[in-house]
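Complex record, two chains
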Amino acid sequence: MIHSPYVRKAVSVQRTMGLVLIALLPGIAAYAWQAGPAILINLVIASLTAVLAEALAMWLRKRPIALAVGDLSAVLTAWLVALSLPAIVPWWLTVSAVLVAILAVKHLYGGLGQNPFNPAMVAYCTMIVAFPALMSQWPALAGGFDAQLGLILGGARELDAVTGATALDALRTGLRAAGATVESVAHGPAFGLFGSRGWEWVAAGYALGGLFLLATGIITWHMPVAFIAALGGTATVFWLIDPAQHASPLFHLASGGAMLAAFFIVTDPVSGATTPRGKLLFAAGVGLIVWLIRSFGAYPDGIAFGVLLMNICVPLLDMKTQPRVFGHRETAGGDQ
Amino acid sequence: MIGRLFRFHGGIKPDAHKDESAGPAIQRAPLPRRLVVPLRQSARASASCLVEVGQTVLKGERIGEPEGFLGTAVHAPTSGTVVDIARHPMAHPSGLDTECVVIEPDGEERWIAHAPFDYHAASREEALAWLRDCGIVGLGGATFPSHVKLGKGAGIETLILNGAECEPWITCDDRLMRERATDILAGATILRELIGARELVVGVEDNKPEAIAAMKAAAAASPHGVKVVAVPALYPAGGEKQLIRVLTGIEIPYGKLGGDYAVQCFNVGTAYAVYRAVAHGEPLISRIVTLTGNVDKAGNWEVLIGTPIQDLLPLARPRADTDRTLLGGPMMGYALPRLDVPIVKGSNCLISASPRLFPPPPPEQPCIRCTECAKACPAELQPFELYWFGRSKNFGKAQEYHLFDCIECGCCSYVCPAHIPLVDYFRFAKSEIWAREREKAAADQARDRFEFRNFRQEREKAEKAAKLAAKAAETRAKLAEGGAGDAPAAAAAGGEPGAEDPKKALIAAALARAKAQKAEVQPQNTDNLSPQTQAEIADIEARRKALAAAADAAPPAAVPTDAEPRP
């Protein structure tokens, strides 16, 4: 028997995931335009792997396959994995990363909605720990398609022609040199107007998609604002104190995966905090950790670790930030 | 106040579907062949039957006497004959039945003598009793007795008249306000005087401009200063607590009533019924019901209480593909399991449903914690958390997260992209908690009883022992006194003096007592018997004696004792 309500809004998990995929398109377009079409190949490899892995997992778990594959959540995970990895990693690395995300992080915990950790970020961390060299080779700008395809298919990695250091890497290594300042390092070829040359456009694409997600109500303002405020705010403070040793807030926000993280990674509903205040704390925590790892850590970017560390805090954050219920006023004496 | 409006959190904007039925004027529904009038017409209270089968009743005649604090009177909706008093199924999700008076109308609609009630001349208690005896309950759906809601008659600042009607499809209050605004305000003025409120505010959702205009016109003509406020159409703005919040900014938590916060709220239909009861002396025997949905002729009808729903539905001409009938709106109503049930005071709308209008929900998907439900929840709950707790039967945690603040408005289920029937989970969790509390209460009671029984048995044992000891001491003392002369003889016999003999005497005395008791008790079995039985017993005794005598005389072998009789 069906109970009330008898009417429902025309929404679905599929629609939600689909809108997020659409929102990623500007960023992907900028990516392909700036860094070559390799990313498109990786997206296809990742998507196919994810769909097959999802189907396999559902089959093993004796659950309806079509409903799970059709909800597009696996494809979205695949895209986020592919966009997090360097676009010229060999195909097997992309496949492994997606398998980790779908099989281990998602389905071992019970499938969609049950995973305490962000699947794409666990996949990224696993790969950067297992294959640090491959994971730090980013495609050079306007790389040739043939060369990129060759790398993806596992060809000999004659890297100099096709890879380039990212601005974050350049800054990190540059600042280690004696007497180097941000200004002296930032004249290198990797640097653009604000952040990494070329990657600024990708970041702008992600931000545009993020605004689309805000407009459609798929995400709320809390996470992007808190993430950007925490990363940008911390960067501002240290930049003002010592601009020679600390990059500007704009550099931080326009570099690496900051915009992807702000609108697409920290906003993952399943593994993130859910209350308004919890969302603010969660995303702010990620932003702070990103700045710390970028400034003092050994890894080029800190988004994945920041997200996973904050994922651990989610149950506590949610519990401690439960919103006030209608009619239950928070007054001094606990009096209602 | 009411300079500004307040917002409540969340809410949804489903398709209103008001136009289907809001156009035509209210029509009077024809008399049905039979009226089934439940004696339970107010929330949580029934009435005791005042009529007998075969009795003729007049329209408005009282057939049920209010019972208890929450009881209200029940009246014959038309003149006719009482043909049955029996339990009948009610409009209820699981078709519960209740005691009903079945009346066959005579078609003459002969009224019982009734006169207006001058509430100015009467005391407040008399006025409330009048409303109770006119069967006035809240017509918004909860059927809470109005005389109880009017309460103490002190400390209420604001009286709110609820004309929001936020549920989709329903238009009975809309039509009532359009057509009978003056009467509604007259009733509201009575309520306001009875409750002693300083101001009277009518809240109407802004998707009913005609009703707002009619109410504003009536308010302008009223000397009592009534404020008609258009509130933004946002389901569930018509929920009592939500409307109070919108109009006054006051939030009434779960478990509290408006009266605790100097504000009280009545439905416009209730105000109209109060007006009829006071100005015309007419009890509440009919209400406006919206017939809409998958029908050719949607509209509103004035329907006698007790009219079977199956007699009413054809008036709107349901289409052929109608597969269910919903009572109430699509957000909080329910599909009627059967249609031979009567309209009661809380029945506001019948929606003929078809798979096209109300398609079955898509398959349930996993919750992705997108928090759409939390954004929509007017009680500001975290429905997905309650869902996870309910699913894992973690009811304690669900209660901690304010499960019982849920008003089951359905907003969360409406917006859920995973199509999870969240409200069903909450209903389930609530009923499980209630069942467990009942079980726990029963277990507590049983344990208390058991413990008391043990205590009582121990106490009785101790008392008995004490009594026996006292008695023994008494007897010993007696014996010691009486047996003093025998002592030397006993001593001469070589026994221990004063030890053996008193003990024997005690035993002998006890035996004698027991014998006497037995003798006393035995005949008691045949005491208090009728002469007939006594004669029978005497007869049996006589036969027994005769048999015994015969057995003594005859050799034992002659008595057939085996299963196989000897030749």
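Note: Chain A has a mean pLDDT of 87.
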